[in-house]
């Protein structure tokens, strides 16, 4: 069947956590919509939240403020707003998701954070390094991205060259452990990463939530939800997690 934008009935009990800032933005509402469009419920996770990750079936690390450079052994080289509390929350979420083998999708800052979590680093300012591209915000898919065909992302996008938007001013520099680069822009800056072993884990440097009118970008969320559903079915056959829930998941569907 061809891709459609119609929502299908929610999968009972399939809950995706969306880690973000204290206040939700349009981007976070669009991420929630994209996930619900493919049958998942969503729960927004604010900085400092003690949500029990074992109650989640998948985790999205959304975009937002820069990760503090101390996380990858540097001092700030640009003027930026930082959110150390969110950094701490995302470390805890990623650590627990890895333990539980829960699928993780990182978007923009989220992709960068995955790389840092795995021991990588960032380039704090790509603007003076661009040669073949202009550094300006692009919400429309006007950035050329080349995708590795033999990858999850290549399977999703179904073509080696795609259009993507660009809002970021930082990018991955040193690649983290057990990650592979699966997409580059015309200046060879990293645009997507994937896990090379273990859990389903993907980091996307652009913002697919703004491109839901495009089948390829919409399928990123579908592929992620499908992975979460597959992992959930496996977990149902595993021994019950006995960790105490420090925080229930009140009000599904993106509260």
Describe this structure in words.
This protein has 255 residues and is an alpha/beta fold. 25% of the residues lie in helices and 22% in strands. It is built from five helices and eleven strands; from the N terminus they run βαββαβαββαβββββα. The chain has helices at residues 26-37, 84-100, 109-117, 152-157, 215-235, and strands at residues 15-19, 41-45, 58-61, 104-107, 122-123, 138-147, 161-166, 171-172, 179-185, 190-195, 201-204. It has a nine-stranded mixed beta sheet with strand order 2-1-3-4-11-10-9-6-7, with helices on both faces. It has a two-stranded antiparallel ribbon with strand order 5-8. β1, α1 (26-37) and β2 (41-45) form a beta-alpha-beta unit. α1 crosses α5 (215-235). The longest helix is centred in the last third of the chain and has 21 residues, at 215-235. It is globular, with a radius of gyration of 17 Å. It starts with 14 loop residues before the first strand and ends in a 20-residue tail after the last helix. Mean pLDDT is 90; it is low at 250-255.
Supply the key terms.
globular, nine-stranded mixed beta sheet, disordered C terminus, 255 residues
List the helices and strands and how they pair.
Layout: E1 15-19, H1 26-37, E2 41-45, E3 58-61, H2 84-100, E4 104-107, H3 109-117, E5 122-123, E6 138-147, H4 152-157, E7 161-166, E8 171-172, E9 179-185, E10 190-195, E11 201-204, H5 215-235
Parallel strand pairs: 1-2, 1-3, 3-4, 4-11
Antiparallel strand pairs: 5-8, 6-7, 6-9, 9-10, 10-11
Helix pairs in contact: 1-5
């Amino acid at each position: 069947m061809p891709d459609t934008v119609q929502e299908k009935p929610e999968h009972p009990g399939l809950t995706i956590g969306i880690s973000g800032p204290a206040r939700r933005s349009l981007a976070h509402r669009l991420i929630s919509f994209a996930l619900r469009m493919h049958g998942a419920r969503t729960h927004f996770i604010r900085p400092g939240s003690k949500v029990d990750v074992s109650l989640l079936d998948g985790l999205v690390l959304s975009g937002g403020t820069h990760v503090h450079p101390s996380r990858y052994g540097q001092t700030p080289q640009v003027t930026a707003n930082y959110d150390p509390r969110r950094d701490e929350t995302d470390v805890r979420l990623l650590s627990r998701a890895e333990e539980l083998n829960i699928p993780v999708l990182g978007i923009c800052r989220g992709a960068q954070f995955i790389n840092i979590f795995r021991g990588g680093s960032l380039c704090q300012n790509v603007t003076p390094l661009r040669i073949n591209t202009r550094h300006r915000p692009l919400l429309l898919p006007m950035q050329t991205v080349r995708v590795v065909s033999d990858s999850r992302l290549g399977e999703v996008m179904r073509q080696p060259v795609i259009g993507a938007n660009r809002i970021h001013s930082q990018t991955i520099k040193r690649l983290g452990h057990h990650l592979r680069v699966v997409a580059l822009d015309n200046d060879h800056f990293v645009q997507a990463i994937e896990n090379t072993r273990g859990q389903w884990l993907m980091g996307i440097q652009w913002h697919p939530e703004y491109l839901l009118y495009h089948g390829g970008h919409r399928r990123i969320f579908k592929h992620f939800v499908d992975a979460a559903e597959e992992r959930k079915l496996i977990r149902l056959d595993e021994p019950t997690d006995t960790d105490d829930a420090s925080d229930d998941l009140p009000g599904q569907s993106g509260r």
